[in-house]
């Protein structure tokens, strides 16, 4: 979100309008590294493109950011022995991340290799923009091994046409064709190139970027926490954002041995304690931040959760 916000601001666009069109709270900019769903990412990129009139924005963002913008995936790339090993690691890690809903794959055709990318969710709006964004990151992965000036033989995106083709080709450094699957094409001998800057991620650093797994309860907890930036999220709203019905979500949570109410309560307790541990917000303001109508309702809920009032907890634990 950070690079998108910078691009919109630099072009004189309105961040408030961009986030409003994407149906996302502007307060997410306060924590730009938080994970968001793929469908929300696509909406945000599409809104930014519309706001500043730059269809080449996805390529510009990903090429400029490189593997530094890949978070935990970037760590896997940088610690792999060869390019082929890095591609294999990315393929394994990506399905385990909540925000992706995507897959990558490596295909050899004689002397050529095709490093492909696909959106696995049924999302049509913004799909091509997401593919172009991904191509920039795939390019960054290969360039980590082959150098910043390396160029693929050509790139492929899906769709019937491509707006701003010449500008995007200039950013990626190669010709782009239209096909059934997005990806980069290059010589297969490149896959054996060793990692020139290999390192082992420090445990504490990796923990800071630890992705959310495919545990449905963890996904719901994360979505509830994101929703608190805007309003108290409902189970219907969370189910809709996850692309499933309320009943399906309830059934999945039951199979995981939990309930929506239990997850929501745990998230609220954790966020309440985080806010109370500082002195910047009054208890009344914290109540509003957590979706309560007034201080009294929040106080009663917190007392039920912890056995003490918010003011007592703040005095005892700060």
From TrEMBL:
Domain HTH araC/xylS-type: 218-316
InterPro entries: AraC-type_N (IPR032687), Homeodomain-like_sf (IPR009057), HTH_AraC (IPR018060), Tscrpt_reg_AraC-type_HTH (IPR020449)
Gene3D superfamilies (UniProt xref): Homeodomain-like
Coiled coil segments of this chain: none
Swiss-Prot/TrEMBL keywords: DNA-binding, Transcription, Transcription regulation
Protein name: HTH-type transcriptional regulator VirS
């Amino acid at each position: 979100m950070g690079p998108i916000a910078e691009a919109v601001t630099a072009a004189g666009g309105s961040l408030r309008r961009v986030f409003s069109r994407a149906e996302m709270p502007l307060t997410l900019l306060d924590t730009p590294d938080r994970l968001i769903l793929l469908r929300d990412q696509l909406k945000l990129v599409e809104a930014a493109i519309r706001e500043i009139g730059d269809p080449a924005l996805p390529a510009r963002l990903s090429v400029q950011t490189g593997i530094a913008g890949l978070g935990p995936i970037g760590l896997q790339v940088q610690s792999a022995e060869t390019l082929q090993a890095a591609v294999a690691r990315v393929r394994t890690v990506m399905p385990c991340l909540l925000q992706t809903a995507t897959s990558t794959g490596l295909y050899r055709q004689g002397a050529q290799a095709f490093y492909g990318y696909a959106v696995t969710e049924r999302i049509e709006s913004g799909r091509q923009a997401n593919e172009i964004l991904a191509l920039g990151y795939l390019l960054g992965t290969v360039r980590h091994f082959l150098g910043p000036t390396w160029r693929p033989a050509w790139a492929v995106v899906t769709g019937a046409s491509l707006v701003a083709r010449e500008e995007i080709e200039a950013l990626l450094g190669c010709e782009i064709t239209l096909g059934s699957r997005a990806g980069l094409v290059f010589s297969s001998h490149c896959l054996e190139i060793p990692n020139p800057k290999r390192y082992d991620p420090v445990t504490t650093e990796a923990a800071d970027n630890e992705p959310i797994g495919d545990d449905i309860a963890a996904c719901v907890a994360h979505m509830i926490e994101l929703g608190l930036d805007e309003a108290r999220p409902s189970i219907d709203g969370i189910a809709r954002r996850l692309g499933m019905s309320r009943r399906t979500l309830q059934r999945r949570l039951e199979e995981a041995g939990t309930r929506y109410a239990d997850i929501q309560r745990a998230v609220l307790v954790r966020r309440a304690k985080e806010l109370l541990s500082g002195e910047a917000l009054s208890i009344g303001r914290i109540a509003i931040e957590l979706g309560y109508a007034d201080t009294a309702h929040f106080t009663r809920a917190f007392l039920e959760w912890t056995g003490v009032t918010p003011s007592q907890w703040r005095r005892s634990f700060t």
